[in-house]
Amino acid sequence: MTVVIACAGSVCECHAQDADSIAVMTEDSVIKADSLFTTKQKRDWATWKPNSKKALWLALVIPGGGQIYNHKYWKLPIFYGGLVGCIYALSWNGQMYKDYAQAYSDIIDDDPNTMSYNQFLHLGVKIDDSNKAKYTEIFKNRKDKYRRWRDLSFFCMIGVYAISVIDAYIDAEMSDFDISRDLSMKIRPKVMNNNNNLSQNPLTSSSVGVACSLNF
Predict the structure, then answer these.
(1) N or C: which end of the chain has fewer CB within 10 A?
(2) Average model confidence (pLDDT) for the chain?
(3) Contact at 8 Å (CB) between 107 and 132?
(4) DSSP 163-174
(5) What is residue 148's three-state secondary structure?
């Protein structure tokens, strides 16, 4: 049996408790105290700062992953729009290059069974000895043109992807950069005293200049 005395001001109360009940109360108190420390605290998104390395790797692995990680969702339509446009241009120019390359190959092989170039001719136009050299040059130039555009589309697609990766890294790195109104530069006119001039004439003892102030 254990006697517990509790005092509040000038009043004291005496309670008799056994050792088992006290042990249970103590154990419950310890469990409650531990639960307070082990409870996972919620992330404060207002003060959250993205990790620049994590944003870089996410942007490299997942298209637009860096922008999603940085919570810059408004950039996703720009990135995906540019990427889809480059893929479409790459596919279109690649197909046109194949068609004109085949037409050029057919027109110079002297085989009457290979005439894929007819799909590029206007209605009623036929290729004979009088215009064969002209159309041969046209098909060759268009083949080379669409090949250049195909290659350019591929490099533009790589460029858009690289820009998204760089943007994700810089955005995360500069997320805590101070862009408040306190950071400003002001240029204003200023009247400066000319200490070297001993004249009392106010017109010659002062000069007008420009003052530049930077607040940060």
Answers:
(1) N
(2) 76
(3) yes
(4) HHHHHHHHHHHT
(5) helix
